[in-house]
């Protein structure tokens, strides 16, 4: 079946975008990457999402994350739509955003990546792309996938939060608990023995006592 699973390598597709033709792996380079799809240009929810994504672009850049969007219209439509998106943000209506938008007019890439929403169709009865978020690591492998229906806009602050979690847990032997935010305590992974944990986390490891007597809720201040 088409689509990507966690751990899959991103296909090295070529595509036309608002910033020229790209080859995906070259576009990513050694960076993290986020690919997010949109049902259609000049639609209300998509316009608000891309506006928010544009405002958060400096935050993603700080985290070494390259952003790229996808919509099923032409490059020319995308460029024209950028004016509306910038105007929505209160900016000059320029034909440019801080990241490229892929033109997938024939839905070839949307099909390949499993992005279509069968319940949302255009006037010709063709399925629209769902609101998919893919986060890729520097190894080009899929680290996170979130799928929203066309009718529900994404929370880009949450996407930024999960990027922080992914990057932290990729390099440290920790996991982030429910509702974690950067700066909060994190959890020591269950596979790490206590003695090794004490060496790795000099700020201390704190274990919550539980009725089961099991010592699996181990917290430590977020490592640097």
Would you kindly provide a written description of the structure presented here, covering whatever features stand out?
The structure is a single chain. This protein has 224 residues and is an alpha+beta fold. It has helices at residues 24-28, 44-62, 75-88, 108-112, 156-171, 194-200; strands spanning 14-17, 20-23, 32-38, 65-71, 101-103, 116-121, 127-129, 131-136, 142-148, 174-175, 186-188, 206-207, 218-220. It has a 5-stranded mixed β-sheet, with helices on one face. Helix 2 crosses helix 3 (75-88). The chain is elongated, with a radius of gyration of 20 Å. The model has no long low-confidence stretch (mean pLDDT 93).
Distance between the termini: 41 Å
Average pLDDT over all residues: 93
Name the overall outline.
elongated
Total count of helical runs of at least 4 residues: 6
Query: Which structural category fits the helices and strands?
Result: alpha+beta
Backbone CA Rg: 20 Å
Order of helices and strands: EEHEHEHEHEEEEHEEHEE
With strands numbered from the N-terminus, the spatial order across the biggest sheet is: 5-4-3-8-9
* Main β-sheet description: 5 strands, mixed
**Amount of beta strand:** 25-35%
Helix content: 25-40%
Active site: 46
Protein name: Peroxiredoxin-6
Function: Thiol-specific peroxidase that catalyzes the reduction of hydrogen peroxide and organic hydroperoxides to water and alcohols, respectively.
EC number: 1.11.1.27
């Amino acid at each position: 079946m088409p689509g990507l699973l966690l751990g899959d390598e991103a296909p090295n597709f070529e595509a036309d975008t608002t910033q020229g033709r790209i080859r995906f792996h070259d576009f990513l380079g050694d960076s993290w990457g986020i690919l997010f799809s949109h049902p259609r240009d000049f639609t209300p929810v998509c316009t608000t999402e891309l506006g928010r994504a544009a405002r958060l672009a400096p935050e993603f850049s700080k985290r070494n994350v390259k952003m790229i969007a996808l919509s099923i219209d032409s490059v020319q439509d995308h460029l024209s739509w950028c004016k509306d998106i910038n105007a929505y943000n209160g900016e000059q209506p320029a034909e440019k955003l801080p990241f490229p938008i892929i033109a997938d007019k024939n839905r070839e890439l949307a099909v390949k990546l499993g992005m279509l929403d069968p319940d949302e169709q255009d006037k010709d009865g063709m399925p629209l792309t769902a609101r998919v978020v893919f986060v890729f690591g520097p190894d080009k492998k899929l680290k996170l996938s979130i799928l929203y229906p066309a009718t529900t806009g994404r929370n880009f602050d949450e996407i930024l939060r999960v990027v922080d979690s992914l990057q932290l847990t990729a390099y440290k032997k920790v996991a982030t608990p429910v509702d974690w935010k950067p700066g909060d305590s994190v959890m020591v992974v269950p596979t790490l023995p206590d003695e090794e944990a004490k060496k790795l986390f000099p700020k201390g490891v704190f274990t919550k006592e539980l009725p089961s007597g099991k010592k699996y809720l181990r917290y430590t201040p977020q490592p640097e």
